[in-house]
Amino acid sequence: MSKMKRKIVISVFLCFFIFANSFVAYGTQYFTDVNTDHWAKDFIEKLTVLGIVKGFDDATFRPNDPVSKTASISMIYQMLNKAGKTKNATDLVDKHKKTLESTGIHTYALWAEPAIAYALEKSIVHEDELKVFFKEGKNVNARRLDVAVFLAKAIAESDIANGSIVVLPFTDADFIPHAAGKYVAYLIEKGIINKNGDYMGRFNPNNAISRAEICTMIAKAYDFISKNDNTGNIAPIPDPNPGSVVVTPKDEIKDGSITYIDSSTKTILVKLTNGKTELFQINDDIEISLNGNKGTFSALQVNQEVMLTLKEGTKLAKINIKSFVPNMEATLNAVVPNTGFTLVVVREKTTNAVKSLKATGTTKVELNGLPASLDQLKLGDILKLQVDGQDILSIAAVSKIKTYQGILESEISSMENPVLKMKINNEVKEFPIDQNAKVTKNGYTRWLKDLKRLDAVTITTEYDKVIEIKANSVFSKVTGKIISLTMAKPSSILKVLVNSEEKTFTVGNNVSVTINNSSKSLYDLRVDQLVELELENEEVIEIEARDDLKKKQISGIISSIHTSSKTIKILYYNPTTNTAERKSIVYNYDTKITSTRAQTAIGVGALKVNDQIIVIGEELDDTFVAEKILLID
User: Fold this and answer.
1) Residues 160, 183: contact at Cβ < 8 Å?
2) Total of domains in the chain
3) Which of 226, 427, 496, 631 could potentially form a cystine with 235 if both were Cys, beta carbons 3.0 to 4.6 Å apart?
């Protein structure tokens, strides 16, 4: 080959080599499912340039797919490596070999051993945590909270302080364990987590983290540690292909919230996450987007979280609206499907005017905090909308009619402005009660004053005000021997020995008392009497007592039933001989048989071998004559 031809070939090769690497460095490796309006596009491309993430063979990135715990640790490790923070990470695999093998990392994720070993060494993850990285040999998905804790531990220059009180700004902060709160707070402080959460103000700690979400967090973490290296200088982006020509990306991303809008001059004031406030002119060529929908200047609202893209670091080119700030509150009047869009007719709250708006397939809809479709909305639902002209970008709806189930926390104290307190999933909630609310209890019409603490209730609300209450008492029976009775108002205290255990019960003043089948009062009860208590919720409403000292109580397991001779044989423990013995129980037509579940009289046919029973009666020779049999079921 001639020297001239060789020079031409080399020149062409160098041009291609430089172009190829410039292509990567500018972040132009686009994925078919990450369009220009995708909220995480810049973060995904940044990590692609750095070589921390990559797409799939079909040219997709699959931004909504979950990320495993193993992969999340690996991505954090790769980020630290690119930032030059893992210089002393050699030989850690051998050091932690035993843990890697015992926790399944060596078996199921051999590729991740260096990352996991580094995480163990730096206390990013504990050995016990690794035990739940896999389930039946399959990777377990990482939650948003998991990644927040891993990432905070990885980038914190020193241990995050313990003992301080952390108040998180999210509406679902109660679902973030106290021990993890400090790590979330640290990432908020460093601008890695948005303090405003999603459009409902939630962090969603237990949601599986998506590929797009983890890219956003890791890209921001990379920027943070790169700008805070040991020299105090901003660290350059590492060359993804050493020896090649790298062109520094010209676009700059800035996050912040809109604090002021001047519609007349089309300018906005944005407070950036670094604490600075900047003024931006919104020209017609600037792209504005929300949820992938293109918007106009009118879509911008004060308090919105936005991501700004600046060309060459100065010229505003794109505004991606990240948080939902409604610019209209209304009541739903109708949803009318049309070709290409859906007509949503609403009555605006502030003006009471009826308006017709357009929703499309890209309109984001949530109902009571959960993803929904337009056909799930009902007449009268309360809507918070973000609109751009006549187009609806997002809808957050709250149902007009809701139903809740739970346990009544307390009786209704005030009848003038009644409030119902009920426990729902271990959380106490309060609801005002409409004056015309319908009340039923145990299937019968009742008054609010008839509701008792611990009633099982189902309530129906209209605009969060109770319009119907369906309550049911929880009935149960207890058998034992009286230890003590303390008379008091409004209720007395009864202590009973039940199966060798002392239990305390509240006795209402309207309690029904019978002794030896005769009607009596509380004052007639005596210590050591055998009693059967009927309880409504936790209050004693009926006491049936025996004071005949000849009456005995025996408890055992049925071994056989002989209806022809009206005999039941049981196996019971005899404390005198300290052995298990058999006893014949004789019953007759006067024997009362009940069960703890049925709460009503049952026949002997309901008893079965191996059932546990308590028998009260008289001992006659080798048999026991039963007056009462209680089936423990």
Assistant:
1) yes
2) 6
3) 226
Q: From residue 569, how far is each of 558, 603, 608, 610, 615 by CA, in Å?
A: 6, 17, 11, 11, 12
Run means of pLDDT, 10 residues per run, the chain, 633 residues:
43 36 39 84 90 85 94 94 76 89 90 92 91 90 95 81 72 85 92 88 92 95 79 38 43 86 85 85 85 76 85 81 76 89 90 88 86 90 87 89 91 90 91 94 93 92 93 90 88 90 90 90 89 90 76 88 94 85 91 81 92 88 86 85
**Do 508 and 410 share a domain, yes or no?**
no
Q: The CATH number of the domain where 258 resides is what?
A: 2.40.50.320
- For residues 133 and 270, membership in a common domain is answered with no
Is the CB of residue 558 less than 8 Å from the CB of residue 609? yes
Using CA atoms, how far residue 352 sits from 236, 335, 356, 472, in Å, is 56, 18, 13, 41
Cα dihedral 562→567→569→572 (10° resolution): 160
Beta-sheet strands, E only, within 488-578: 491-498, 501-515, 518-520, 530-536, 539-546, 552-562, 567-574
Reduced to 3 states, what is the DSSP secondary structure of residue 216?
Answer: helix
Does 480 share its domain with 446? no
Six token digits for residue 286:
């600037």
11 within a domain of the structure (yes/no): no
Residue 434 maps to a domain: yes
CA dihedral 536→537→539→545, nearest 10 degrees, is 50
Statement to judge: residues 614 and 498 lie in one domain:
no
- Residue at which a domain ends, from 187, 210, 226: 226
Q: Which of 185, 197, 200, 193 is nearest to 219 (CA)?
A: 193
Question: What H or E segment, with its residue span, contains residue 155?
Answer: helix 144-155
> What is the domain range of residue 384?
328-398
Q: Kindly report the CA angle at 593 between 474 and 585, in degrees rounded to 5?
A: 140
